[in-house]
Each structure stands twice: as structure tokens, then as C-alpha cells.
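Please, structure for the following, as C-alpha cells.
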Amino acid sequence: MRTIEYWDNERKKYPQYDHCAVIIAEDITSRFFNVIQLFNGNIPIIAIQMNAYEVENTAGLALTFTKILDEFELGLIDEDEEVTEVVDRYYWENKGSKETVELADSLLRLIKEIDPTFELKYNKYYIGLAKDGSADNFVSFKARKSYLVMRLKLEDSEDIQNELLESGLDLMDYSRRRGLQRIRLVKKDLVDNEETIRKLMQMSYDYVHL
């Protein structure tokens, strides 16, 4: 609770930045995850478990840090249009920034290579895709202040994960239950990794539609 309180104080003090709570503890139990679920994904939080080991033949200790939770999200992912609250572009420019929403525009141009009728659809919990007025969220986005989260529906494949790791992209978590890979993007990634991103989008489209 102290971590969440500190996170809340910092985001109020510096609203121009994106804030993520980080907790480091020796023992992270199921009780912690139960508490996080109560917030329904409204608090971005990273949990790191720390362990100490005695080093043989020395008087010293070694510390290891293992990431248990990476900016966990329990919010809505691919909600049906009937239950999703529609907002406008300004909502996401305010929640994120103009620059990160413009990055979504640039990524839409790659999506239009698959089908030129796709458009961005601004929902309260994510920026999705629409085709002929119907939701088709094989790719969706969340705009943050300094980066854009791209979420792709992808097969749980070792080959795909290895390709992602080799790409140099800033990977977040993969949800096996939803078949969803999250990637943190900045403008430079579109310059350095355009072909990789284009390939991932095509793979995501094929995974959902074929």
C-alpha cells in the first residue's frame, strides 16, 4: 500500500510523465496478486523479488533480482463494441500525448498495407481498429506520455518469441490466455524496426483471420 501511495503522490506531482509503481520484496505471495486484482488494472505496477545468497569462502552476500510482474494490466483487452465506451482522439492525446497518438497514425499506415479500409477507433481503454464500422482488433494500442504500447494477437510460438527477442524491440508481457503480445514503442522504433513491425502486424492479421 505504501508503494501505491507513493505512485499516486508522484503522478499528481508530475502529471506530464507516465508513472509506474515498482515494489521490491524478498517474498511476493499470492496475497499480493489478490490485492492487485482489486484495482482492476488501474495501477501499472512492476514487482521484483529479491533473494540473498551467501558466497562461499567469503564474508559477502550476493543479491539476485527477478521480475515477477511487469506492468500488469487487468483492464479490458478486446471488448465487444456494444460494451466499449467510445471516446475521441483528444481523450488519448490528453491521457497519453500528441506524439504517441501520432505514432499510432504512423503504424496505421502499415496496417493499411494489409487492408486500406482499416481506421483507428478511439475507445476508453484502448485505441482499436475498425473495418467498415466493425471492430477488428488484431492490433490495438495504448498511448502513454512518452511511448505507445502496441498489442498484437499472436500465436504462442517459440519461433515467434525468438524473432521478437532478436528484433531489439522493447518487449513487455505475453498473455497466453489471450494470445496477446505487448510491445513498448517510441518513434525511433518505427525507423529502426519498420520491417519487423510490418511482419508482426501481418502475422497477427493472419493469426486472427486465417
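The chain has two domains: 2-69, 81-209. The CA atoms of residues 138 and 208 lie 6 Å apart.
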